[in-house]
């Protein structure tokens, strides 16, 4: 075992003792109604209980990197198969734990790979609470369970551009392309309930003189509206929900009628200022 610079016990401001000088992080992977859990080895803290793979963060290591590294050290899960969608943060004052919420393409064969792990298992979500859970994970599970969703951010380009006083109307296509580039450059968003930090799939709906804007060099899915942009946004939301009923879809627009239509399809909404403040 290789020891990292964060491998030590610390006491938080609440008077609790925790593992991880720089905090800790874990990985909660889900697929098809199952979550991947670690059966902790007897010699570990909370030995014999079930929780997520994870451990202490190293100095200057972000939570996602720490969660993936620890999981790779403790199991055979290939980090290349993992897509992280969100982070849930628990701050104890002077010490914090971050859970990375992620998916994999299948119920992969994952096994224990270190002395810290007794076993690894895919457990149906509805059966998790019936296991002998590691105390901190048991406390967090009710909140984490509600986060086993994939976040998607759908942006009404025309409406967001209209909230800017930058002369966008003189070159609608150019303004849409700039918005696309800004949108594509930001991976982490706060305020996308139920997540503390979300790494959403990104959809930009363009219309009118901007409908020929493509994805460029970004990871943004650009959807051109053949006629009315609102109808295309509602249809896009309906398609997303039909394909994946648990998807956490947020539509960015200030249009009240459009907000109501999107909510009826199962999406949440946010205003342009919320998005622009994060770009």
Description:
With 279 residues, the chain is of the alpha/beta class. Helix content is 26%, strand content 29%. Strands 3, 4, 5, 6, 7, 8, 9, 11 and 12 form a 9-stranded mixed sheet that branches. A 5-stranded parallel sheet has the order 14-13-10-15-16, with helices on both faces. A hairpin with a 4-residue loop joins strand 7 and strand 8. The protein is elongated, with a radius of gyration of 21 Å.
Give a short summary of the structure.
With 279 residues, this protein is an alpha/beta fold. Helix content is 26%, strand content 29%. It has seven helices and 16 strands.
Short descriptors:
279 residues, alpha/beta, 9-stranded mixed beta sheet, 5-stranded parallel beta sheet, 7 helices, 26% helix, elongated
List the helices and strands and how they pair.
Blueprint (H helix, E strand, L loop, with lengths): L8 E3 L5 E3 L4 E8 L2 E7 L9 E2 L1 E4 L6 H12 L8 E9 L4 E8 L13 E8 L10 H11 L5 E6 H6 L9 H14 L3 E2 L6 E2 L2 E6 L14 E4 L4 H15 L4 E5 L3 H9 L3 E3 L1 H5 L3
Parallel strand pairs: 3-8, 10-13, 10-15, 13-14, 15-16
Antiparallel strand pairs: 1-2, 3-4, 3-6, 4-5, 4-9, 7-8, 7-12, 11-12
């Amino acid at each position: 075992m290789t020891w990292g610079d964060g491998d030590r016990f610390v006491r938080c401001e609440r008077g609790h003792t925790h593992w991880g000088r720089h905090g800790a992080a874990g990985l909660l992977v889900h697929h098809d109604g199952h979550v991947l859990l670690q059966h902790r080895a007897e010699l570990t803290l909370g030995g014999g209980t079930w929780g997520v793979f994870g451990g202490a963060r190293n100095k200057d290591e972000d939570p996602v990197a720490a969660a993936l590294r620890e999981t790779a050290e403790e199991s055979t899960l290939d980090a290349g198969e993992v897509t992280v969608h969100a982070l849930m943060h628990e701050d104890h004052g002077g010490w914090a734990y971050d859970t990375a919420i992620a998916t994999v393409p299948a119920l992969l064969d994952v096994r224990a790979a270190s002395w810290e792990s007794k076993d690894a298992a895919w457990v149906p979500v509805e059966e998790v609470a019936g296991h002998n859970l590691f105390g901190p994970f048991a406390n967090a599970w009710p909140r984490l369970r509600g986060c086993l969703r994939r976040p998607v951010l759908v942006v009404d380009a025309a409406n967001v551009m209209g909230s800017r006083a930058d002369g966008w109307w003189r070159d609608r296509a150019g303004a849409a392309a700039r918005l696309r580039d800004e949108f594509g450059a930001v991976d982490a968003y706060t305020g996308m309930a139920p997540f503390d930090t979300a790494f959403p799939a990104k959809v930009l709906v363009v219309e009118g003189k901007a409908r020929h804007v493509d994805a460029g060099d970004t990871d943004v899915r650009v959807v051109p509206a053949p006629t009315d942009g609102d109808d295309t946004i509602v249809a896009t939301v309906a398609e997303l929900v039909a394909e994946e009923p648990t998807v956490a879809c947020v539509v960015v627009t200030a249009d009240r009628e459009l907000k109501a239509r999107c909510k009826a399809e199962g999406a949440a909404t946010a205003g342009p200022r919320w998005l622009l403040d994060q770009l």
